[in-house]
Specification:
Helix content is about 65%, strand content about 20%. The protein is α+β, with helices and mostly antiparallel strands. It folds into two domains: about 15-145, no CATH class; about 150-220, ACT domain (Alpha-Beta Plaits), CATH 3.30.70.260. Strands 4-5-3-6 form a four-stranded antiparallel sheet. A hairpin with a 2-residue loop joins strand 4 and strand 5. The radius of gyration is 25 Å and the shape is elongated. It starts with a helix and ends with a strand.
């Protein structure tokens, strides 16, 4: 009887549905490969599962819903993906990381939903454009970062914070301060500051910090 149930279930599975879940795993794996080689928290397996799961839920939404309510389950995919995306975004001092990975999770779910409703061409186009953004535009981003960098400094002073000297040096090097936070730990004063500017100017700022006796240590 169990074997008969399995056979009946197998016959009930539509060939198009098998194609959809297969394509979703392939698409998610391709998208996840880029994140994997960069050592990100959501990589090869994660994005493959997200794309696959989105396709399965979209198929379930279509099969279980009536004509006027077939988007009921699929609509909740967006909510679930939002929680996953929030889990890979981290705040480090005054900078934020993981936003690109969160966006990759979001687009993986979108591609999975497109495959689930049978929009293969649109899903393929979305995958190609996503890979273009992640790979090709990365080169452009590198060129921009080379000319204009952002460094999240953590500067520890021995006893007091020389605000005037720091501000004067930053202005003389044409650097910009995006965000800053001042903390006290015992007799030490810690400055966490996000500084932006040309790489050469930032290196000069590092040299200046090394020459200051009042600076105990700094890192970025």
């Amino acid at each position: 009887m169990l074997l008969s149930s399995v056979i009946n279930t197998a016959h009930a599975i539509n060939g198009d549905e098998i194609l959809k879940i297969t394509l979703s795993v392939i698409a998610g794996s391709i998208l996840g490969f880029e994140r994997e080689i960069r050592g990100k928290s959501a990589g090869f397996r994660t994005l493959a599962l997200i794309c696959f799961g989105s396709t399965v839920f979209t198929i379930c939404s279509y099969l279980l819903g009536v004509d006027s309510n077939r988007d009921r389950i699929a609509a909740n995919i967006i909510t679930g993906v939002g929680f996953l995306g929030a889990g890979v975004i981290f705040r480090n001092n005054v900078s934020v990381s993981g936003i690109t990975t969160a966006a990759s999770i979001w687009i993986a779910a979108a591609i999975g939903m497109l495959i689930g409703i049978g929009e293969y061409v649109l899903a393929a186009l979305s995958l190609v454009l996503s890979l273009f953004i992640l790979y090709a535009l990365d080169f452009i981003q590198f060129q921009i970062d080379f000319r204009f960098q952002h460094r999240d400094y953590k500067i520890t002073f021995k006893d007091k914070y020389p605000s005037g000297a720091i501000q004067q040096q930053i202005e003389s090097l044409n650097l910009q301060v995006t965000n800053s936070k001042l903390l006290r730990s015992g007799e030490q004063v810690i400055l966490e500051v996000l500084v932006s500017g040309k790489g050469k100017q930032l290196e000069l700022f590092n040299d200046w910090l090394l020459d200051q006796n009042i600076v105990q240590s700094f890192e970025w």
